[in-house]
Amino acid sequence: HAVLQGPLAAPLVSALFRSFPIHASPDQVEAFHLVLIEHCRSVVEDVLQRGEPIAIANCIGVSSVLLDRLMAGFFTSEPVLDAVNIVMLTLNSLTASGTYASRTLANVDQNLLVA
């Protein structure tokens, strides 16, 4: 949760996806990615339902990181589905009228969210 409250959430999450020992096996890397994606999903779900504006905006950055990793072929099959679900959850929460995330961001000075 604390990561999404700060201005460098997306670069930090991106760095986490690249941080594993050089000697890690492909199965260990995939397991690490699954744990990281699961944690991202849990935090993003929570933030989109009751988070601060900066944290909600950072969900977009995290989704961008996940899409970047997808396009780079970084994930195997199961993490791909999980990452797509997080991105879709974020987009749906931000674009559907009446959701907490869309109402919260609509009421915030947009200059505060651009860094």
SSE order in H/E notation?
Answer: HHHHHH
What's the story with the biggest beta sheet?
none
The termini sit apart by 19 Å
Structural class of the secondary structure composition? mainly alpha
Explained architecture:
With 115 residues, this protein is mostly helical. The protein contains six helices and no strands. Helix 3 runs parallel beside helix 5 and helix 4 runs antiparallel to helix 5. The longest helix has 25 residues. It starts with a helix and ends in a 9-residue tail after the last helix. The model has no long low-confidence stretch (mean pLDDT 85).
SSE map:
Elements: H1 2-5, H2 9-18, H3 26-50, H4 53-71, H5 77-95, H6 100-106
Helix pairs in contact: 2-4, 3-4, 3-5, 4-5
Summary, kept brief:
It contains six helices and no strands. With 115 residues, it is mainly alpha-helical.
Write a concise keyword list for the protein shown above.
0% strand; elongated; 115 residues; mainly alpha
